């Protein structure tokens, strides 16, 4: 830490000016767009003030550092007051930020976050109340869709999201951004086969309802169970037929004349229908 | 037209092989990504087989030409049989298609479409039945959102979409693609101020319901009118307050703890709720 602390704010966090893109303290921010495509570590990238707010108030994630444009600092006073003193906050010029990150960061606020603990689906389910709503995702590998589904899960206060291992990581930069931080907010687990996930749910007394254009009941006719798990599959192929043959199924009633809904929209409609708010 | 007709299909349309990206017949396909960003003509670009199907069966739009990868021709027999003989169908290599269009066209199927007639909102409304559902968009300028809203409007068979002049053109390449062709299927008009649009609706006996997180009724409590128009505003700022003060408003009931829904998702939930299928 240097003594170069921003003077126009009175944050707890120390704000350190960094002049050069090759400063080793910026290494976690290097080429974040590229890295997003090729792999993951335990760390993730949060973008923008709204997502930073979620990260800073999260029990399951913590910030490792924050990187802010010089001219965005004054808008972050409240956030910086929340930060522990030991959390590094770096400020840079737009040119430095764009150079290090590999694209134009128009929001001007980035943070590196880290998972503190990764609960299993069994642990998550064990902690749920008597009335609970869970979203279950099978094979959803599109970052936008995963992000949007989490945003809907947060809006309708689903208790958690369970994903099989073929779903993409909800901590991809784009998934976090599209979710407006909901992937840092809604508890989730992502491991095992869909069969494993469904077995855990049955064991905890959840009623399963698999969403499919060929579902037998309309979601508006299906009666909500106290513990309900809504199962969503990929947009193109949908849920595996052996699963659909075995589970209770429901459809969003719609035109037969047109391609089905986007899976994220379908999740919004079904979660809204079965949320405690409706 | 040359005599180089594909032999493995028996289409009505003549398929012409083009070898060079600078062939003038390919001019409408040049740099389509760039042009999408800078302006519009009466023409638009359709991508992929599903959208091509919609275009070829449309009463309000027509294809001017089709551009297909050599190796995708055999999958288009049914479509090519639908085409009038005078419609040029060009086939090219992947390299030529990517060079002319300015990006990697992995779907391998492009078409240039054209509007035949542009109805006004008054004309559209005059043709609607006694029971009708209309989506009204105010200031929605994001192509993805406009495309998704049209996809939802098609899925729930909204009778038309009315947009004020500050909405973006639903014939942008990306809006058409995200809509899976629905912007070519669901009748729409886009002109005038939102006040003009609402005045036309009132005149035709439509009940207006403005969707807003601060809406007075839940969408699940609001009773559907025979002629119902659902009004959606931008995601960030929502509908102008003077409008909300004056109109009947409804909210999608949700958590107060989280950022509101994406407007496209909100349209899916509200259209599903009030569709003839629910």
Automatic annotation (TrEMBL), chains A, B:
Membrane-spanning segments: none
Q: Which GO terms describe its molecular function?
A: RNA binding; RNA methyltransferase activity
- SUPFAM superfamilies in the record, alphabetically? alpha/beta knot (SSF75217), L30e-like (SSF55315)
Single biological process term from Gene Ontology: methylation
Top-rank taxon: Bacteria
Gene3D superfamilies xrefs: 3.30.1330.30, 3.40.1280.10
What Pfam families does the database record attribute to this sequence?
A: SpoU_methylase
Q: Which InterPro entries match?
A: Alpha/beta_knot_MTases, Ribosomal_eL30-like_sf, rRNA_Methyltransferase, SpoU_MeTrfase, tRNA_m1G_MTases_N
Q: What does the UniProt keyword field contain?
A: Methyltransferase, Transferase
tRNA/rRNA methyltransferase SpoU type domain sequence ranges: 133-271
Q: What is this protein called?
A: tRNA G18 (Ribose-2'-O)-methylase SpoU
Organism annotation: Phyllobacterium leguminum
